[in-house]
Amino acid sequence: MKKRILVSGGAGYIGSHVTVELIAAGYDVVVADNMSNCDRSCFDGVRQITGRSELPFVEMDFCDAAAVERLFSRYKIDAVIHFAAFKAVGESVAEPIKYYRNNLLSFLNVLEAARNHGGCNVLFSSSATVYGEADKLPVTEQSPRLPATSPYGNTKQICEDMLRDAIAADPSIRGIALRYFNPIGAHPSVLIGELPRGVPNNLVPFITQTAIGKRACLSIFGNDYPTPDGTCLRDYIDIVDLAQAHVCAVTRMVEGRMKEGYEIFNVGTGRPVSVAELVTEFEKVNGLKLNYKFADRRPGDVVAIWADTSRANEELGWKAKRTLAETLASAWAWEKHLAEQ
Ligand code: UFG
Fold this sequence. Notes:
The protein contains 11 helices and 13 strands. The relative contact order is 0.14. By secondary structure, it is an alpha/beta fold. α1 links the parallel β1 and β2 (about 30-35). The strands form 4 sheets. Strands 3-2-1-4-5-6-11 form a 7-stranded parallel β-sheet, with helices on both faces. The protein has a two-stranded parallel sheet with strand order 7-10. The protein binds uridine-5'-diphosphate-4-deoxy-4-fluoro-alpha-D-galactose (UFG). Uridine-5'-diphosphate-4-deoxy-4-fluoro-alpha-D-galactose (UFG) binds near residues 129, 203 and 301.
């Protein structure tokens, strides 16, 4: 019997790539999304890549407890991967209540449904933001979580704690939190990728939109940081590599190979790259010149963060494979594909 995985927020950037990899690995998948921050075209892209025109899709809001309950009654779910959440750091500062309501309530409903249906494996989509400005780099899963600097970051910490506590009280629930570093790039088919609404907050979509002429100039936020070239350091992870980490984590859960009821893994490359390096690499790989300038630091940015990935490498048997060059080529191919639409 094939195992069935529910992917909440499965039509979004990460969810769509994860759905593709789950199907490639032989899982049955049910995608559910309220379509609040994605486009139908991404789900269509998933169906096209996988050749699954009948791939189940449920349009629903995970804040609706009755709808979540109905979903768990309709399908026997072996594991749920929970992506359905808001993710813009700046917006969360301006609208904290909206963020707490959406991100916490949706996950609470998932946990409640998991409990009501005799337990479930739960994979929570967390973030390296929980480490804040770490004292020691790279960060391991044991590095301290620092007080969150945004409501968005706080929702990630609280949801991790909700999962941990639910598992401690009820051994029929098991869970993994994956802490993502900076996911970038697009599927090699260019049928799915990131679709930022309005002006992108994140670096790579801003770069590709500048390169295509949608934005006049990239601002590099700060060049006086205590780093080798003065710009911030991050761990940029290819979206397909990131998606494959989910397959490894889900397989570990459904095959009963977890060592503890609740486990945490960093999902990154272990390679720090500065903003200036990333821009130079993008120009080189894609043979173009980017219009950019140095600007003031962006409030709230950490100076540097990258992952110690040993735990994921050893326990999940997963390792990021794609080079930064391949990933930046895919990001540019995706932007060009969008321009042709
Ligand atoms: N940057 C620029 N110019 C831009 C956009 C970004 O210079 O136009 C810089 C930022 O200052 C930062 C780096 O590029 O130094 C990366 O910025 P992103 O916004 O792409 O990513 P962040 O590292 O700030 O945030 C990401 C996710 C968050 C998550 C965080 C966890 O977007 O959701 O990683 O570390 F919380």
